[in-house]
Automatic annotation (TrEMBL):
Domain VOC: 6-120
Signal peptide: none
Record lineage: Bacteria, Pseudomonadati, Planctomycetota, Planctomycetia, Planctomycetales
Pfam families in the record: Glyoxalase
Name of this protein: Bleomycin resistance protein
């Protein structure tokens, strides 16, 4: 592939059943700040924390919410894990040093979307 393009960042879009409920979860549990909010009732929103932006889209058909997965690379993953535990987040995989070089854990949002939070580690 020609060396003419560079990927700089990504912003996952997660399908949810209730935009406002999801915004509240991402704000209270993960410390994200709301950004854009479209329509009344809401059908699309963005939120961010540091250099990461997450998009939320209303699952209009009601059959795809909770089927999304994404990875967010962080610093101090242990502190984030403890904060998620303290906020009673649904942890679906406890923090561990994974064979692929990340110290990581998974959590599930209110709709069942899975987010892996990880930080590279050195063996």
């Amino acid at each position: 592939m020609p060396d003419t393009a560079r990927f700089n960042s990504a912003a996952p879009c997660l399908l949810v059943r209730d935009i406002l409920r999801s915004l509240e979860f991402y704000k209270c549990v993960l410390g994200c700040e709301p950004g854009y909010l479209e329509a009344d009732p809401p059908v699309y929103a963005t939120l961010h924390r540091d250099d990461v932006t997450i998009h939320l889209a209303l699952d209009r058909d009601g059959d795809k919410a909770g089927s999304n997965r994404c990875c967010v690379f962080v610093t101090n993953v242990d502190a984030l894990y403890e904060a998620c535990i303290a906020a009673s987040a649904k942890i679906t995989r406890k923090i561990e040093d994974s064979p692929y070089g990340l110290r990581d854990f998974n959590l599930s949002d209110p709709d069942g979307n899975e987010i892996l939070f990880g930080e590279p580690f050195r063996k």
